[in-house]
Amino acid sequence: MADRLVESLGGRDVWAAAKTLYVRERAYPASINGPVTAEFWRDLEKPAYRSVVVGSGVNRETRWDEDGGWVVRDGAKSEIPEENVRADVIAWRQEPYVMYHKLALHDPTLHLKSVDGRKLEIYDGPDGRLLCWFVVDASGALLVWGNIYDGEVSEHVYGPLRQFGEFRMPAWGTSTNGGWRFEYEEVIGLSEPLDIRN
Q: Which are the contacts of 81, defined by CB distance < 8 A and separation ≥ 6?
């Protein structure tokens, strides 16, 4: 199931080679009136993240890694509290993009479990915590990704796959709580790790 999932998204070679993933979305956050352009850079091998969200009434850049992070909102910079950075680092290991990279590499620290042939659960080792799950269609293509974040189930439902350069990603996705809807505009795999301080 894992191999078919990765193959449906562009293939093992593409996901294994990417060290950082850049994604641009046209997004519709429930908390903002109107669409935004959201750009994300995620290191796929170590916890590091950058985002830029610009749109109606919002201009925000966020950067963090294991050593700390900050947010620049409308030109004003504020440090991210240490406990929030720790939570982000824990959540990084559950990210779907990070998981596609690890599945492409056949990461031996992951324990995979098939449920009813359509749901792939991924655990942190054979006796570890549940990191996330994917629901796929009969061909192995992505339909749903979910995890447990901050004690609550978080899931995204995805539309049909489209080509974005070397990658095949859903044309759109939405969180099941309606908090974040988006359409992919660009997806690029970068061969360099993400340095949030440059």
A: none
Which tokens in the block code for residue 190? 């970068």
The CA–CA distances, whole Å, from 144 to 33, 42, 171, 191 equal: 26, 20, 13, 27
Strands 172-175 vs 152-158: parallel, antiparallel or unpaired = antiparallel
Mean pLDDT (whole number) for 163-176: 97
Residue 172's identity, in one-letter code, is W
Q: How far apart are CA 197 and CA 86, in angstroms?
A: 18
User: Which residue is associated with the tokens 């992505």?
Assistant: 142
pTM: 0.95
Pairing of strands 167-170, 142-149: unpaired
Whether the Cβ atoms of residue 166 and residue 15 lie closer than 8 Å to each other: no
